[in-house]
From TrEMBL:
InterPro entries documented for this protein: Acyl_CoA_acyltransferase, Alpha/beta_knot_MTases, GNAT_dom, tRNA_m1G_MeTrfase_C_sf, tRNA_m1G_MeTrfase_TrmD, tRNA_m1G_MTases_N, tRNA_MeTrfase_TRMD/TRM10
One GO cellular component term: cytosol
Sequence ranges assigned to domain N-acetyltransferase in this UniProt record: 247-403
Alphabetically ordered keywords of this record: Cytoplasm, Methyltransferase, S-adenosyl-L-methionine, Transferase, tRNA processing
Organism per entry: Candidatus Gemmiger excrementipullorum
Protein known as: tRNA (guanine-N(1)-)-methyltransferase
Length: 408
């Protein structure tokens, strides 16, 4: 790939492209970069590059002519190398916002030319005549386009084969899959009293990947709800899994069933609360305590259903016909990942046919469930409860219990 930067400060841009990872890649000819001085293309004696704006106003505007001639020279150089006409990008504060998707798109071109404005900007006519697009690197104004062009050049060039040591280097990073990256740690294990999350020291890569994926989803949901909503939409659920032979759902009626439901409830609750509640609280989540809670809820109008696979209870869900609520959707550990949760949620919603918009609650830390619910048509409808370690002795970290409403 060839990158050209058209600027009043070519040395500044060149020194950046000669340093560190990009500098090493450039020295190995993994890409070509050329920085051009706009002033060299002026036609006046003073080598003046700018003038007052027509119509008045403060500041100066860059002439069209030297930029146009510089772009023509770049086109000629590309043609002499047998390259296609370069894709021309003007860096402007009023351009389209730049994203990782744009970096990936621009990385596909054989030649990209980045044009930097200065002062009040550039004569619009040269943008119209030569520009393929205008890009802004953010909603703020810089004094010149050099930093913006280097942001674009850096994000595009690092995607060129061989520039980063491993392709995985960028595939794991923020925005690649539409999510922000998980937090990173290095030695020492404990720094100023802060320990590295224990899961990262286990050497169990399945667990580590699962932890990192959950961190990514949580961070994105909390910091960038816009990205998270888009990610959920673009990761649609495969069609609802079909009920298999030997699989069914039964109303909890007899004592064995109540015991099975209480055990599933206790195990499920401990799993979802593991990262957000204190150890002391987790220890109170026994099948016995859960059985008492289920009994109280039954008296309050709730009905519970168990999911059976070949006669063994491995999932549960509760519904309340009075209020249109769904709760306690849990699947036993060995039965997870088989679509039982999705099937039971669909089953519960259909049980509440008289409520077109049933509700349920979920901890904000349970991002896997949140993503599933979202893809099944459930949408946020407020915060049902807040667990704050400052006021709640059962809470280990600040957590919200979110209410979701079925919107179909
Ligand atoms: N008068 C312009 C406006 O209000 O949109 C701002 C001109 S700015 C002071 C000078 C140059 O900096 C621009 O021509 C552009 O090349 C660059 N620039 C400033 N902010 C930028 C941004 N957010 N993204 C990309 N380029 C920017």
């Amino acid at each position: 790939m060839r990158i050209d930067i058209v600027t009043l400060f070519p040395e500044l841009c060149d020194s950046f492209l000669s340093a560190s990872i990009l500098g090493r890649a450039r020295a190995k000819n993994l890409f070509e970069a050329h920085c051009h001085q706009i002033r060299d293309y002026t036609q006046n004696k003073q080598k003046q590059t700018d003038d007052y704006p027509y119509g008045g106003g403060c500041g100066m505007v860059l002439y069209a002519q030297p930029i146009a001639d510089c772009l023509r020279a770049v086109q000629a150089q590309c043609a002499a190398q047998g390259r296609a006409k370069p894709h021309v990008v003007f860096l402007t504060a009023a351009g389209r916002p730049y994203t990782e998707a744009d970096a990936r798109r621009l990385a596909q071109y054989d030649a990209v030319t980045l044009v930097c404005g200065h002062y009040e900007g550039i004569d619009e006519r040269v943008i119209e005549a030569f520009g393929d697009e205008e890009i802004s690197i953010g909603d703020y104004v810089l004094t010149g386009g050099e930093l913006a062009s280097l942001v674009v050049a850096d994000s595009v060039l690092r995607l060129q084969p061989g520039v980063l040591a491993e392709e995985k280097g960028y595939q794991d990073e923020s925005y690649w899959d539409g999510l922000l990256e998980y937090p990173q740690y290095t030695r020492p294990e404990v720094w100023e009293g802060r320990a590295v999350p224990p899961v990262l020291l286990t050497g169990d890569h399945q667990k580590i990947d699962a932890w990192r994926a959950a961190q990514s989803r949580t961070r994105t949901r909390l910091r960038r709800p816009d990205l998270y909503a888009r990610w959920c939409e673009t990761h649609p659920l495969t069609p609802l899994p079909k009920w298999k032979r030997g699989e069914n759902a039964r109303l909890v009626k007899n004592d064995d069933q109540w015991q099975a439901a209480a055990a599933l409830y206790a195990e499920g609750l401990r799993t979802v609360c593991a990262d957000v509640c204190t150890v002391a609280y987790l220890e109170t989540l026994t099948p016995q305590a859960c059985r008492e809670k289920l009994d109280a809820e039954r008296r309050g109008g709730w009905a519970f259903y168990l999911h059976y696979t070949g006669g063994a209870a491995d999932g549960m869900v509760g519904v309340c016909h009075k209020t249109g609520e769904i709760a306690h959707l849990f699947v036993a550990e060995p039965a997870r990942g088989k679509g039982i949760g999705a099937k039971m949620l669909d089953f519960a919603r259909k049980k509440l046919a008289e409520h077109p918009h049933p509700t349920l609650t979920v901890l904000d830390a349970n991002t896997r469930a949140l993503a599933l619910y979202r893809r099944m048509g459930w949408r946020p409808a407020g915060v049902a409860a807040v667990y704050d370690p400052a006021s709640d002795p059962t809470a280990a970290v600040y957590t919200q219990e979110l209410r979701l409403r079925y919107e179909g």
